[in-house]
Amino acid sequence: MRWSAGQASVELVAVVPLVALAAAVVVQVGLAAHAWGAAREAARAGARAESVHAPARQAARRMLGDDLARGSVVRTHDDRDGGEHVSVRVRVPMILPWVSGPMVSADAAVPRDAVGAVP
Predict the structure, then answer these.
(1) SS3 labels along 12-80
(2) CA torsion sign, 95 to 63 to 71 to 32?
């Protein structure tokens, strides 16, 4: 009986770090998904602003919020067909603060009927 209690303790000590690691991975994937979704929504907000000749960068950064807007890159560009796009790149927040996260990006097209339209 005593041997099985000791074995259970050893197994618990071995399993707890694995459970903590799995939880950290789940949280990190959630943060990456949040950053990508925020970049997508910010690109769409920038495209809407651009369609009415408002500043796309300000609209996109406002949509991101203070934490994600810090270090983000918002850019407007033309494609080969003459359409305009707004691209947003956001750094993924990391669980470990000393680790620099990857960048995720999203792109949204400005509606064609709005490009070049006079307000």
Answers:
(1) HHHHHHHHHHHHHHHHHHHHHHHHHHHHHHHHHHHHHHHHCCCCHHHHHHHHHHHHHHCCCEEEEEECC
(2) positive
pLDDT digit string, tens, across residues 50-89? 988 899 999 999 999 888 998 899 999 887 777 889 999 9
Please state, in angstroms and rounded to a whole number, the distance separating the CA atoms of residues 115 and 80. 14
Task: Order the strands of the 73-78 sheet from edge to edge.
Answer: 73-78, 84-91, 103-109
Q: How far apart are CA 102 and CA 53, in angstroms?
A: 31
| Domains of the chain by residue range | 2-109
Q: Distance between terminal CA atoms of the chain?
A: 83
8 Å CB contact between 93 and 57: no
The larger pLDDT score, comparing residue 7 to residue 30, is at: 30
Q: What secondary structure letter does DSSP report for 82?
A: S
